Please model this.
Amino acid sequence: MMQKTELQVAGRRVSLIKAGATAGEPVVLLHGGRAGLSPIASGAHVFDRVIPLFATGRKAIAPDLPGYGGSDLASPADLDVEKQASFVLALLDALSIDRAHIVGHDLGGLVALWLAITAAKRVRSLSIAASPVCPPTGDGLNDILFDAAPSPLWSRQSQAWAFERVSYSHEHVDAALLDACEQAAGGKPHRDAVDVMRDEHVRHRNFGIGALKGRIWESLRRGLTAPTQIVWASHDPATTREAGYVLYKVIAEHQGAAQFHLINRAGSFVFREQPAEFTRVVAAFQDGIDLEAAA
Amino acid sequence: MSLATVLPDQRQTLPAPKHIDVDGIDTRYYEAGQGEPIVFIYGGNFGSADSASSAPVWSLNFLPLSERFKVLAFDKLGQGHTGNPKRNEDYTMAAVIRHAAAFIGELKLPPVHLVGHSRGGFAATRIALEYPQLVSSLTIVSSGTLSPRVSTNEVVLSKPPYPAYSREGARWVYEGYSYNPKVVTEEWIDNVMDVFAQPKYRVSVHKMVQEEAGARYFLPELAKQKRETLGWLREGRLQRPTQIVWAQNDPTVAVEGGFDVFDMISAHNRRTTLNIINHAGHFSYREHPERFNALLAGFVANASA
Model:
């Protein structure tokens, strides 16, 4: 059973979903989104289809990152990827989790990658799923995916539109998802994030992504400690499969235990559109890494 | 999803092989475990004096997976310890596929999960196309034969600098296939030497090379079958859950070929994934057995759920 709980981490309210009570190293799922900017009010709820599947093999934990869902945003700087990774580390401490298998989607993939770079001992394995922000971009095209988001922003209809924009099929955009997204949009963390994004300087920080990427490539040139898999979707309007494959090759250059996966008939929310395929590919990697360590 | 039961220390000697008559061909196979049936089809073809696959090439996968599934690995027509084709014109891939399908039929099992490697990946795909009632899912591992790209086996592995049928020659070939040559164990080469030692195997090499069955029958027929098979895949005739497992460092099969196979199949078949394993050569299932086994176990469990 999925269970939603709240706890205090560094004096701030944190909301998370957890399931499964199996012993062993848990899987921590980090959601994506762009707090206050994206037309989707993201949070742990986007993982509702896969948490029960992961929980059959190991404990699964999906937190709302600060500024999303039910997790407080203390300051605009907390939205930076770097700070979000520090938050995940503090959460692991608070939950007495020594080491975990980390899965990150979209911007959560970058949080997960930075965590694997800066807190290698805490990351048993890394799975980066459909994360357009992780691969090298070069002189990319400007992002027009959400250019014409319908008003009012963060209404049920506007969020449903945004999910469709990044999906292979609209089938996964169900009532449970939209209920949870509406609730997230009405919460204080989301409203605070929208408020701080009114400030042009905060907007231009862009979650600290630009400043971080150079440091990430510098680290990846030396190699990543965690076994890493890149899980991409066949029909992701937000990225190309070449981008995912290039990211995998950069990591595979120095990390022998690297894998690349392509899942069919899915867009950015690959774990919602093909939950069984996504979970089996990720769980197999995590189980395989555990088995290799035991061998 | 946990595969805690599939422990690597379960690797031991294979059970005693069994024999079954398949259309008059004495066919050797291994069987273990209970549950959803998985049938492994290895690569290569009859008639090589430098290398010889046989069912024990799956030794690192067979026993760990037998903890959860019924696993079967058999010797293909003319290979390993199975009898040779009876007629010269049966030195073909078509005859190998007919024999493999007949073997699966003889076992009277529910539809099986096929795992085919290299030339065996082609054979497994053909069985899924021609005999779909026998097949519940398909795993294609590093099959240059199925890929529309150029395979570079001949560049890497032609003319070993050792005598025919020699231990050193076989080792040179399998090391050449591998990312990490250390994975080519003595046990692996022992099994190759067992195949070389059989008079019937030398007959098949004589047929293929000296009597030119390779050039007259095998290769032209395979070329025709390959054209037909690629057409069938593009038409959407493959209608079973399919996972494609490719290796990053295979000196004989291009990574891009895995994407091509994915594109042909996934266009028509929802449950299709491509999985690329780093630091792996042609035999990914021997170079990274734990991760390969976990991937296969999850796939089979999902495909049969």
Remarks:
- Chain B touches chain A through 36 residues (CB under 8 Å).
